[in-house]
């Protein structure tokens, strides 16, 4: 503890500054603890930022496992470089025989020779793409002083569907106008006509601007250097044509590109892309381990270094970590060829026998490869399986709002959750998301149906019946219920007007979710995805719109703000006390100076008396 010293020095024998300074330092003593707490809280906030980033990465990885698209990934190969092929998630395994008879080409033309920098001639150049009745014509005004380079610039600036360049013969200096269609195919071929403003015969006399006319190669001064052509291929014996070299959705999800004419049929193979599926699983394992390792590091006490983690013993973080580990134990509730858990496909938690008793995930490569040989079972395991609507899916019907007329404006919020006692309980970890559907003032019931059906993440399909909206769950079982609320633009979400007429209420239930013997189940990827929603927030559920990480970070920010206020309070108090002490000790110093002066005077008087009496 600091002590007051330094008495007996200074002009009047009292070091006021030192005394006050030491007393003020005593008042500021709490700042040491506050500053330490501030540093610790800032470190925790930084760690929470790192955790949130790792949780985001895990959420991205989980989303790939919980999505049908990831499990429908297709790989496409071609036996010849004459044919390229790509496939999306809608492609089914197949083999195609492809021959290319002709590749697509764009029309190219060249004008007759013009003297260098010669004037072309005045008038209007008419560039026509295609043939009637689907032709489009662009007029380009050419002045009497325009040269070929000027005409080329005007064509390129007109968006006429062709590109223009000028070629110069270095030997003679003569110039030619070169034109190319911007797009391939016979329907994108162009023709050129002119209007010079005189007699019609002058528009085709091959003088002045009419030297640039061109129509299917009949003009002698402007000739075709490459004909427009459609691509022609044969797929499994069926002849197909395309204005471009790309043949999209030849079969569902497959796009074929003709690169050059084939000398023999090319074999195109579409297979399930198990390598992409494996990559997604490996990405999940890495993302999980990264987050789990940081949680272990920050919540544990490291005996070897005698170092405590920044969140040692933090009950909320430990509970969250337990939830993550619990989600790894999710069991798929349907018969799925033996694939019902993470461990059944080779993703397991390392135990003490592996010297990793910390929840670290490992992959049994042989087991995973075997499981990936059955990609449909893998998809069902992670995504879940759909069931008969009449058997087990919840359905609901709204009030009748009429067909073909605007319904109202606002937002429909479809929330996925579970049933309890024949009623919607709440969002749950298996889905736990709300999907918002924006409804405009002109949307009819059919428009709303199309919007809902266009977004599979709603978990429902929509239809109409008697002017009412009918919603049916995509999945069966009591754990795949839905609810729908309305945010009406008029602010009244419960009246019988506008969009609020579509609000879901208990009486609208046509069929509750049921668990039948054949059982439709939520995939383990969907279950894990629901947990990530709870941790990261962003959608309405049991955890509200702010997830665990956001709430934890907000709590730490509040601690930091409180700490800053407390430091200000301590400093303010110390300043007030310093001011008070300065006044008191300064007054005392003055008093002591006065007493010292009096003492000196008395001593002098006594000495004088002694002299007088002697």
From TrEMBL:
<comment type="subunit">
    <text>Homopentamer.</text>
</comment>
<dbReference type="GO" id="GO:0071973">
    <property type="term" value="P:bacterial-type flagellum-dependent cell motility"/>
</dbReference>
<comment type="similarity">
    <text>Belongs to the FliD family.</text>
</comment>
<dbReference type="GO" id="GO:0009421">
    <property type="term" value="C:bacterial-type flagellum filament cap"/>
</dbReference>
<keyword id="KW-0975">Bacterial flagellum</keyword>
<dbReference type="GO" id="GO:0005576">
    <property type="term" value="C:extracellular region"/>
</dbReference>
<dbReference type="GO" id="GO:0009424">
    <property type="term" value="C:bacterial-type flagellum hook"/>
</dbReference>
<protein>
    <recommendedName>
        <fullName>Flagellar hook-associated protein 2</fullName>
    </recommendedName>
</protein>
<dbReference type="GO" id="GO:0007155">
    <property type="term" value="P:cell adhesion"/>
</dbReference>
<comment type="function">
    <text>Required for morphogenesis and for the elongation of the flagellar filament by facilitating polymerization of the flagellin monomers at the tip of growing filament. Forms a capping structure, which prevents flagellin subunits (transported through the central channel of the flagellum) from leaking out without polymerization at the distal end.</text>
</comment>
<dbReference type="InterPro" id="IPR010809">
    <property type="entry name" value="FliD_C"/>
</dbReference>
<dbReference type="InterPro" id="IPR040026">
    <property type="entry name" value="FliD"/>
</dbReference>
<dbReference type="Pfam" id="PF07196">
    <property type="entry name" value="Flagellin_IN"/>
</dbReference>
<dbReference type="Pfam" id="PF07195">
    <property type="entry name" value="FliD_C"/>
</dbReference>
<dbReference type="InterPro" id="IPR003481">
    <property type="entry name" value="FliD_N"/>
</dbReference>
<feature type="domain" description="Flagellar hook-associated protein 2 N-terminal">
    <location>
        <begin position="13"/>
        <end position="106"/>
    </location>
</feature>
<keyword id="KW-0964">Secreted</keyword>
<feature type="domain" description="Flagellar hook-associated protein 2 C-terminal">
    <location>
        <begin position="228"/>
        <end position="395"/>
    </location>
</feature>
<dbReference type="InterPro" id="IPR010810">
    <property type="entry name" value="Flagellin_hook_IN_motif"/>
</dbReference>
<dbReference type="Pfam" id="PF02465">
    <property type="entry name" value="FliD_N"/>
</dbReference>
<keyword id="KW-0175">Coiled coil</keyword>
């Amino acid at each position: 503890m600091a002590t007051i010293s330094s008495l007996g020095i200074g002009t009047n024998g009292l070091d006021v500054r030192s005394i006050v300074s030491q007393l003020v330092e005593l008042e500021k003593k709490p700042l040491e603890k506050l500053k330490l707490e501030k540093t610790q809280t800032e470190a925790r906030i930084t760690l929470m930022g790192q955790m949130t980033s790792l949780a985001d990465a895990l959420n991205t990885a989980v989303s790939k496992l919980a999505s049908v698209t990831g499990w429908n990934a297709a790989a496409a190969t071609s036996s010849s470089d004459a044919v390229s092929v790509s496939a999306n998630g809608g492609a089914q395994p197949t083999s195609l025989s492809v021959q290319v008879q002709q590749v697509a080409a764009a029309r190219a033309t060249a004008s007759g020779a013009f003297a260098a920098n010669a004037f072309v001639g005045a008038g209007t150049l008419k560039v026509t793409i295609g043939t009637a009745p689907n032709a489009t014509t662009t007029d380009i005004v050419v002045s009497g002083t325009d040269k070929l380079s000027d005409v080329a610039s005007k064509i390129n600036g007109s968006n006429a569907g062709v590109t223009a360049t000028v070629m110069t013969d270095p030997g003679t200096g003569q110039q030619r106008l070169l034109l190319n269609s911007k797009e391939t195919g016979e329907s994108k071929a162009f023709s050129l006509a002119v209007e010079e403003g005189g007699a019609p015969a002058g528009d085709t006399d091959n003088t002045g601007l009419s030297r640039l006319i061109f129509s299917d190669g009949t003009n002698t001064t402007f000739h075709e250097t490459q004909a427009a052509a459609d691509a022609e291929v044969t797929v499994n014996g069926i002849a197909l044509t395309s204005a471009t070299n790309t043949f999209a959705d030849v079969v569902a999800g497959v796009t074929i590109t003709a690169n050059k004419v084939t000398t023999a049929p090319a074999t195109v193979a579409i297979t399930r892309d198990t390598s992409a599926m494996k990559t997604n699983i490996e990405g999940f394992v890495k993302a999980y381990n990264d987050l789990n390792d940081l949680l272990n590091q920050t919540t544990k006490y490291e005996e070897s270094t005698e170092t405590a983690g920044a969140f040692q013993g933090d009950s909320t973080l430990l509970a969250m970590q337990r939830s993550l580990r619990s989600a790894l134990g999710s069991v798929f509730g349907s018969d799925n060829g033996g694939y019902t858990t993470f461990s059944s496909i080779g993703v397991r938690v390392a135990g003490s026998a592996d010297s990793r008793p910390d929840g670290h995930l490992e992959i049994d490569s042989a087991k995973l490869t075997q499981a990936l040989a059955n990609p449909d079972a893998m998809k069902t395991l992670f995504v879940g399986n759909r069931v008969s609507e009449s058997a087990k899916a919840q359905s609901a019907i709204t009030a009748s709002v009429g067909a073909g007329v605007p319904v109202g404006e606002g937002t429909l919020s479809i929330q996925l959750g579970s049933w309890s006692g024949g009623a919607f309980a709440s969002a749950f970890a298996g889905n736990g998301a709300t999907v918002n559907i924006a409804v405009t003032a002109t949307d009819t019931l059919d428009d709303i149906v199309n919007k809902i059906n266009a977004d599979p993440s709603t978990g429902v399909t929509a239809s109409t019946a008697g002017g009412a909206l009918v919603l049916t769950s995509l999945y069966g079982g009591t754990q795949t219920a839905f609810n729908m609320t309305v945010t009406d633009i008029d602010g009244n979400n419960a009246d019988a007007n506008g969009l609020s007429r579509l609000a879901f209420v208990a009486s609208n239930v046509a069929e509750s979710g049921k668990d039948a013997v054949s059982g439709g189940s939520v995939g383990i990827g969907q279950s894990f995805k629901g947990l990530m929603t709870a941790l990261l927030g962003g959608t309405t559920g049991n955890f509200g719109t702010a997830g665990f990480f956001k709430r934890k970070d907000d709590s730490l920010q509040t601690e930091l703000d409180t700490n800053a206020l407390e430091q200000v309070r301590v400093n303010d108090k110390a300043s007030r006390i310093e001011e008070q002490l300065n006044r008191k000790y300064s007054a005392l110093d003055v008093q002591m100076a006065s007493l010292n002066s009096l003492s000196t005077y008395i001593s002098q008087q006594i000495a004088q008396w002694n002299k007088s009496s002697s």
